[in-house]
Design goal:
The chain has 226 residues and is an alpha+beta fold. 45% of the residues lie in helices and 17% in strands. It has helices spanning 2-24, 30-61, 74-91, 112-128, 185-195, and strands at 70-72, 95-99, 108-110, 135-143, 148-155, 200-202, 210-217. It has a 5-stranded mixed sheet with strand order 2-4-5-7-6. Strand 4 (135-143) and strand 5 (148-155) form a beta hairpin. Helix 2 packs across helix 5 (185-195) and helix 3 (74-91) packs parallel to helix 4.
Length: 226
């Protein structure tokens, strides 16, 4: 565990210490101090993300994860996900498309926090491996026959070799060591989705990048009308 985590934690910590020293040596230059503070903030947020990943994985492995089953509006949740992720995707000069299908105005039951976390993780992951000018698509549909919702995140990035597609869901697995992260994100997604009664996989037929698909059982809100 320490072997995997030491490098990932050391990188943002070095940035925080280094930027603090630079700021202290430029006390009479407000613009320089502000630039250092912005970089310290980004490094701090990255470090917090690493710690949260470790804590989430620990909870899941110990069976301490709790999954709620509350009514939610899926279009509203997806709009919220887009609001959170779109600025970062646009900053990387990537195109972002969202396909919203008609849900017949039905409300479904799920854990909105966990579902949002999974989608944001997949979109952030897609953005990391998609070059400027590429595109990322968030899509979902309802499979009434199988009584499940299918979500997908598609990118036009570097793709994942077929012999590595199962490995990416394992803990600490990173196909690119130069990309920030613990290698826990997809493992957390998979375990969380399975706790919610679904599954996640990579579309082997998509060859223009990577497409992650996950299923979620349909749990409709029961009517309280008599």
């Amino acid at each position: 565990f320490l072997s995997h985590m030491s490098h990932d934690i050391r990188t943002p910590m070095n940035a925080i210490v280094g930027m603090t020293d630079i700021a202290k040596s430029h006390l009479n230059e407000p613009d320089k101090i502000l630039d250092c503070l912005n970089k310290i903030t980004l490094s701090g947020q990255h470090l917090l993300g690493l710690i949260n990943d470790v804590l989430d994985m620990s909870k899941i492995e110990n069976g301490n994860i709790s999954i709620s089953n509350m009514p939610l509006s899926l279009p509203e949740l997806l709009t919220n996900v887009v609001t959170i992720t779109q600025p970062n995707i646009k900053a990387r000069n990537q195109k972002f498309a969202v396909r919203l299908h008609d849900l017949r105005h039905e409300r479904y039951c799920s854990d909105a926090l966990r579902l949002r976390q999974i989608l944001i993780n997949l979109l952030s992951n897609a953005s990391k491996f998609t070059p400027a000018g590429g595109s990322i698509t968030l899509d979902y549909e309802v499979d009434e026959k199988k009584q499940c919702m299918l979500f997908s995140v598609t990118d036009t990035g570097t793709g994942i070799p077929e012999d590595k597609q199962e490995l990416v869901f394992q803990r600490f697995e990173k196909l690119n060591e130069f990309v920030q992260g613990t290698g826990l994100g997809l493992a957390i997604c998979k375990l969380t989705i399975q706790y919610m009664g679904g599954d996640i996989w990579i579309d082997k037929n998509y060859k223009n990048g990577a497409r992650f698909i996950f299923s979620h059982p349909i749990k409709k809100q029961e009517s309280t009308e008599k």
